[in-house]
Amino acid sequence: MGKVVLVTGAARQLGGRFVRRVQRDSDVDRVIAVDAVPPEHHLGGAEFVRADIRQPAIARVLAEHRVDTVVHMDVTGTPLGTGGRASVKETNVIGTMQLLGACQKSPTVKRLVVKSSTSVYGSAPRDPAVFTETTPPKSLPSGGFAKDAVEVEGYVRGFARRRPDVAVCVLRFANILGPAADSPLAEYFALPVLPTVFGYDPRLQFVHEDDVIDVLLIAADEPRRGTLNSGTFNVAGEGVLLLSQCSRRLGRPTVPVLLPAVTWVGSALRTVGMTDFSPEQIRLLTHGRVVSTDQMRETLGFEPTYSTAQAFADFARSRGAGLLPPQAVAHAVDRLSTAVRTLASKERS
Predict the structure, then answer these.
(1) Taking Cα atoms as reference points, which of 348, 64, 11 lies closest to residue 182?
(2) pLDDT tens digits for range 209-225
(3) Which of 201, 187, 193 is closest to 251 using CA atoms?
């Protein structure tokens, strides 16, 4: 008998893609796709089970199907359908608690893979230039999806201590982009005009959704020779982009806002339902965040196909042209930068 893989969050595009892809693994016998709502996309030959991971019934699903590999992808920053922030938090935190409780009681579960986020490091003015997996954050996230991810990882560490026989892999993804991306940052980049924090140009990293699927497959499989797929790993494409570079490549103008007024702008955007402009999102767009991916390459044995710039370019193509041609935005920014430098040199002289 091959492996029996259970995947949570199957109704989301990314979860559905992984469900369809993992079925092609020759070592996999069955795939159990779980979500609280039926997916709108096909799941191939997977068996869909409508179950809310926030409820104890998830334990019966594990037992009935004798699941040995659990891939927990239902940790996200955006609601599914009409759900709000409260529903997202319950699924992230309470759902993870229930799922881990069910895994702890299951004698068949041997591997657990958890989709997490580099947002657990937070974003602060005194952050290190690059976070490694063992770098403690200068300021823990105080709310939003970032805080959910911190709590989820805490519960996963507790589970790993109680079940040392289970191989546990936590993947901390940078901001996921691609044609079907549905993250808060993807919603932000979809705005016709991008509000930015005056005086800041943060460094950002991205990972392509195709690479997300590939690294999840590695984490859920038996490790290859010379690699180890248990532990915590940062996952991001090579290189970084400045927020100003992102706006130019999208062809979207920016509106610099003084830091004290950014919170008000975020509240206004949430009111009209355009994007999740949470305090943690504001900190990211102020201070940025860059993580080391050495362990991803050297220990996990994964090399992303897309760099940060390539992942963003694929995302930008899928969103269509912005209000202004990218070349015009770049030209205007260059002229403004030249004017600022000229004015500064005159003042010094």
Answers:
(1) 11
(2) 999 999 999 999 988 88
(3) 193
Strands (E), the chain: 3-8, 28-35, 47-50, 69-72, 111-117, 167-173, 175-177, 194-197, 203-204, 206-208, 231-235, 241-242, 254-257
Query: CA neighbours within 13 Å on the CB side: how many for 160?
Result: 17
pLDDT exceeds 60 at position 274:
no
Mean pLDDT computed over 257-266: 76
Cite the DSSP H helix spans in 90-235.
Answer: 95-105, 144-162, 184-189, 209-220
Is the CB of residue 174 less than 8 Å from the CB of residue 237? yes
Q: Other CB atoms closer than 10 Å to residue 182's CB: what's the count?
A: 17
Measured between alpha carbons, how far is 349 from 95 in angstroms, rounded to an integer? 62
Sign of the CA dihedral running 327, 333, 339, 341:
negative
Please give the Cα distance from 109 to 159 (Å, whole number).
12
Grouping H, G, I as helix, E, B as strand and the rest as coil, residue 60 is helix
Q: Give phi and psi for 325, each to the nearest 5.
A: -60, 140
pTM of the model: 0.89
CA angle 201, 124, 148 (to 5 degrees): 110
